[in-house]
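pasting input
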Amino acid sequence: MWTWFHKLASPPHFYRIAGLTIPAFSWAAGLLVAAGLYGGLVLAPPDYQQGEGFRIFYVHVPSAILSMFVYATMAIAAAIGLIWRMKLAHAVAAASAPIGAWFTACALATGSIWGKPMWGTWWVGDARLTSELILLFLYLGYLGLRSSFDDLQRADRASAVLAVIGIVNLPVIHYSVVWWNSIHQGSTLLTPGAMPIAMKWPALCMLAGFALFYGAVLFVRLRGEVVRRERSAAWLREVLVK
Amino acid sequence: MQDSGRQTGLEARSVHAWRGDRHVIRGLSLRVTPGHCLHLAGPNGVGKTTLIRILAGLIRPEDGSVLWRGEAVGHDPDAFHADTAFLGHDNALKADLSPLENLAFWSALAGRPAAAVAATLGAFGLQACLGLPVRVLSAGQKRRVALARVALSGASLWLLDEPFTNLDTGGIRLVEAQLAQHLAAGGMAVVAAHQPVTPDQGEVRRMELS
Amino acid sequence: MTARPGLWRVGMAVYARDLRLAFRRWEQAVQPVVFLLMVATLFPLALSPEAAQLRGVAAGVLWVAALLASLLALEFLFRADHEDGSLEQLVLSGHPLGWLSIFKVLAHWTISGLPLVLVSPVVATSLAVPASALAVVMLSLLLGTGVLSFVGGAAAALTLGVKRGGVLVSVLTLPLVMPALIFGAQAADLAIMGESARGPLLLLLALLVLSVSLAPLAIAAALRIGVE
């Protein structure tokens, strides 16, 4: 297993694998999102309490889950990069950050749009919304810190420390609806029996589709990072010329 | 055992280092033993400062290892640092404090008695400016205060990066005298310098970097 | 070989030196307090001077002003040491860097956080805060500025050597101290309304304990990266 991991972490090997997997991820993502949207917007019944307005759930919840998943990936990759000094790990963190930031912004925006008809307000200062907003600021801070260094190695390592520090926010977001009396509804997608299957399967499709979308975009960006970091290496010249 | 003599010193094995995109240090090995001084020479930009900073433990080399008394520095970095004194390009002096106050702080960190500070500063020709704020001293005087800090540390290994910067001939002779005393007492030194390093005692080996 | 000095002696030496340096340049050191006083004066001018309205926003205004004042001072925590080479000497001192950082942050808090706490009753009174609430307001600021100094210290360590890094330090610190701001302002607000602020105060204390334990690790890691 370690040899597989080691091979994957080698830039020329990864570059080749990425070339094969990106189209696969993209097609799978496209199909799943299409299925999820059709299931959620057309097939699924309207919510008995919230009516049709509920359907924004199919974009809001996967975005929010991905925003946290991407940050977790980023922080773990950053930690690996710091501890084992693996350049590709730092590249994963760097490539994930903008994607995660967009997912977070999307979750906040769709949540706000959903909140207006449901709660009567665009924003409320409760724990979950605030900690998700903090997550967006963490992403932006990470990107800002990265870009303020000319030396790539220093940028990698300083931003890796920041990413690891910010991980404490993730449990706060997730458990905020448990620890505090929040206006935000509790966990439904991941709690068994909380949702009828007709509503659940489109949401899971969307979630899987978004995750594969993240994978595809991540690999595309990673290839770019590899090219940037290994620009003086011989193997890259051969590959690009081919 | 014969090997124990070689063990009590600083050693670098096949050290590689990059600065940005440049591969500055390529597979470099060196050894410094008690009573010896290693003089790193070479043109500007060749990597003398990078190498000294690697030996000091500020930069972790991309490949290769640095050993102190036979053990990798990473095993007990605090013990290594406690026995090492580093002089970089900057003097590490606070402009608003006097030389006495500056060195009193560093000697407290090094566990040295405060009484020795004034005497050491005197040995570097600074008796007249003991109580003046460092910002009114000349560049050469500031460098002397920084060198006094190294002499005061009681460390076995001195790592000096361009110690003679800004010094006049009198200052250079003073530093070489202190270096000779240090080597005679069984200490070691690595000095990166453009000019020759000629202490009265102790053996100096020159290593040209390219 | 000389005997190594004890950790407390070393820590106090670091603390004492930073305080001495700040007193030699006290005009610089008082700037955060001056800022707080000015900002607090702006609010009654910009809003109405009516006591009831001021009292409603007093907790938030006081806290945000104290936050901004502390952020201003953060940039100086490591910058001078980094520029004159003292920082790399501290890294090479052979003493635990996290331990030394605690004392540097404490010195910084004594210079920029503690004065804010001491001045806050005056500022709070000017914002129509009742005298009964002043103790809680001060306590919340005491704990909150502590959190700020430690978390901000990590942000300052990460941005070592970045040109004009002042704004970046604030951008990095704010998300991490928002919980402290929320609880602190909540505690002050409850006290102003005459209710018990025990809950938020205890949470704030927990945040302080968390920052004091974790921030030094982050600061040490960041400082090592910064002096390479």
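fyi The interface with chain B takes residues 1-5, 9-10, 13, 17, 20-21, 24-25, 80, 83-86, 88-89, 91-96, 227-228 of chain C (CB under 8 Å).
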